[in-house]
Amino acid sequence: MTKPAKPVGLLSCEDAAAYLSIGERTFQRLVADGKIKRRRIGAIVRYSVADLDAYIESLPDEPGRNPFADLRVVSRGQSQSRSVS
């Protein structure tokens, strides 16, 4: 299987969101919050691949965390409350 070529240059909103693997509304929120710059060419708005890569690099590196790690498993017949002595 061949790897898709990395886009070069400027992307539409739809393509930029796809590049980041997020929805268009989420992408538009990032733009509105000033986290991603937009480029205007006349009336057309485009997004630079370099700016998208910079946004990705600005994200914190966090090791994967299991969202269920803090939950206790309770067997049937056991009380969920724990008495404190």
Give a description of the structure.
- The protein has 85 residues and is α+β, with helices and mostly antiparallel strands.
- The protein has a domain at 10-58.
- 32% of the residues lie in helices and 12% in strands.
- The protein has three helices and three strands, in the order E-H-H-E-E-H.
- A hairpin with a 2-residue loop joins strand 2 and strand 3 (44-48).
- Helix 1 packs across helix 2.
- The protein is elongated.
- The protein starts with 9 loop residues before the first strand and ends in a 27-residue tail after the last helix.
- 8% of the residues are buried.
- The model has no long low-confidence stretch (mean pLDDT 82).
How many DSSP-defined strands?
Answer: 3
Largest sheet: 3 strands, antiparallel
The proportion of residues forming helix, as a percent range, comes to 25-40%
Tally of alpha and pi helices:
3
Mean pLDDT: 82
**Which structural class should the secondary elements be placed in?**
alpha+beta
Q: Which series of helices and strands comes N to C? A: EHHEEH
Name the poorly predicted regions: none
Q: Give me the Rg, rounded.
A: 22 Å
